Amino acid sequence: MESINLFFAFLSENREKLLEQVLEHIGLTFVSLLIASLIAIPAGIWISRKPKLAGGVLGFAGILQTIPSIALLGFLIPFMGIGVKPAIFALFLYALLPILRNTYTGIQGVPSAVKEAALGIGLSNQQLLKKVELPLALPVIFAGLRTATVINVGVATLAAYIGAGGLGEFIFGGIALNNGAMIIAGALPAAMLAVLFDQLLGYFQRMEGRQIRKWPRALLLIIPILSSAYFLPQAYAPGWAGGFPPEFMGRPDGYENVTTTYGLEFNTTIINNSLMYRAVYEKEVDVISGYSTDGRIEAYNLVILEDNRHAFPPYYCTPIIRVETAEKYPELLAAIDLLSGQIDDPTMTQLNYQVDFEKKSPEEVAISFLKERGLWKPDRAQGGEEVVLASKIFTEQYILVALFEQLINAYTDLDVSVKPGLGGTKICFDALLNGEVDLYAEYTGTGLQVLLDTPKDKVQEMIADNQAVYDHVKAEFAKLYEVQWLEPLGFNNTYALMMRAEQAEQLGIKRIEDLRN
Amino acid sequence: MIEARKLTRHFGNFIAVDNVSFTVGKGETLVLIGPSGCGKTTTLKMLNKLVLPTHGSVWVDGQDANTLEVEELRRNMGYVIQNVGLFPHYNVAENIAVVPRLLKWEASEINQRVEELLLQVGLPPNQYTHKYPDQLSGGQQQRVGIARALAARPPILLMDEPFGALDPLTRQQLRRDFMELEALKATTIVMVTHDIEEAFEMGTHIAILNKGSIQQLAPPRELLTHPANEFVKTFIADQAERLELRALKLKDVFYQLNLEMPAQGTILKMDASAALLHAIYILGKQTNHSISVSMNGEIRYADRSQLFELFKNGLG
Lengths: 517, 316
What we know:
The structure holds two protein chains of two kinds. Chain A has 26 helices and ten strands. By secondary structure, chain A is α/β, with parallel strands linked by helices. Chain A folds into three domains: 2-235, Orthogonal Bundle (MetI-like fold); 240-312 and 497-516, D-Maltodextrin-Binding Protein, domain 2, CATH 3.40.190; 317-492, Dipeptide-binding Protein, domain 3 (Roll). The longest helix of chain A is centred in the first third of the chain and has 35 residues, at 15-49. Helix content of chain B is 38%, strand content 25%. Chain B has a six-stranded mixed β-sheet with strand order 6-7-8-3-9-10, with helices on both faces. In chain B, strands 2-1-4-5 form a four-stranded antiparallel β-sheet, covered by helices on one side. In chain B, strands 11-12-13 form a three-stranded mixed β-sheet. The relative contact order of chain B is 0.12. The interface between A and B is medium-sized, with 22 and 28 residues.
């Protein structure tokens, strides 16, 4: 009952956002469907005239269909960047096959006697197509449009991953924050849209050829109108174009915090962590909430805006572990402790840079770092009990988990397994609490505001004092969760609003405060 | 009038039709018949260019068909096929009206023509105009198919096994109704069949084909009396007796008919070249009718029982 109430509370608080996302979602689905129809229907007609080509063309469209959707979006980024364009293009590719195949099958399915009779009594090839083949193939073509629409409604939820909006914003945000109400607020409308469009097109499809004759023209109007839904929300959104990852949007120390502390308004685009740097670089957005140690800040020539009002607490990176596990494996603590205080801000930025830009693997980077510090030793023979490490889903965490793994292998007999790329803080922490994960690297500020839900005035009291925050979370976690914070690794990876250096300089923006004008 | 001049068609190395020539005059019916793969259908399809000849040409009313637009050529030739090929998304009236619409006839003229044709093919317009093909029996569908082919009053009609898909009873009935159609009296017909009885009943001329070439082209009786070669002889041998009866025309029994006009009942005029069997069929449908036949300036009469006697004598 309570979760249902939470869900409705979330809905009523986020009505406008939901409407916006639904419109974007419908728009994304139908823009791509429209483009796909414009290409796939004529192509289907064409290959029905040239059966020798049909196998090849359908096979090619079939291969496109088999590319996993997230991977496809990934492939497209180097060519089309991020945002609406690659999202629509990917959806377009997925919609091609069902429409193409059904157009082809529909026309092939017209009885040859009907075609022969039509030609025999003097219809031209064009009249045959227009008066006989297309009308008879229409129910089958509709079935293709229907399949494509349902696929697109589903795949469009991934558009939020690359900052193209849609209901995926709630879904990704909800996953990152482990917020069920938020996930359902995205997933339920998406499912309802799929069912709605499926039923609607199913109704057309079941019509007999003779009733359906009037509809194609109406549909020619309906699809563009639905397509334009995408552009409605953008038309009246105020403020700076901000690109923020889902987790930032939902955290108490995130979006809400920075906008109230500074009295700012953003026209927000939800975008994946690892893509937001590119988004600001490509001018898709103007402001992002980056991580201060990210290697891409320098590479993309971004500047961090000074947080002069201390909206963000310190985020000292520290491995955390259940007390029970810590007592069981003292050798584990000793191995991890070798890293304590070893990595300062510039070092972490440099390590991140090596992975993000020099395209080295996190393992490679971890090993060369350990060698440089004289910490590297060959692996010991394994065969001890197993410990499970986890990482969140950004570069720094992949490197840290690789470092931990190397050290444990080298200095203990324990067996290590790794769960990399868990989708958010809550997911990592819940996994730690229920024993699926033994150790991962957390940040003091995150512990303070996301996991402990510390009252605002208490936060304000200690926000400028690194040691106070660390001591507070260490004590509270031990008390509430029986989780131990080990020694900090040394760097402070704080949230930071950042923008293109060039634009910041042009507008004379140095501090977050300056965004207000 | 339609004329085939040395029509030849190759499919790769296979010669489907080899040097076929014929002329079919106004009001005549040429039946193409032969074993499977003999080239009869290919020959027919070359007449309306559904298949293009490798060599040879088609002439329509003295004009080379190659000089005509292919659609124009086809709109002047009705086309009826075994599987009918009605448009399933059009109702009966719309199906019949396809060609008149292409020719941009007035709507009222089209409606009138549709009604007239439905009556002729024995489908009462008030019951059938708005039905869709899937609501009709096979025989009814083919009646509509024939009406569609005749809609724009084409001077030529091509038929590819038009009754082939029907059960024997429906088939015979439809065939005989078809021969009665007023519209066909002045139409040039080329028809393909594999049913030799049908060929003998309907053809004014029959062309027997084998391996792509015509073995003999002659009126039905002549095929029986003077087969051109062994192939023709064996092809019709099995059924020669029955075929002879079908080939029996009114003119063959003319002098055995009555001289006096019957005192009562309606008298139907029939052509001397009509088949005796056909006359029996017509009279079977209309009781109390008799026929009149004229030949060489003389008129003679007969009723059904008399014709039937003559037919039975033919059996002996």
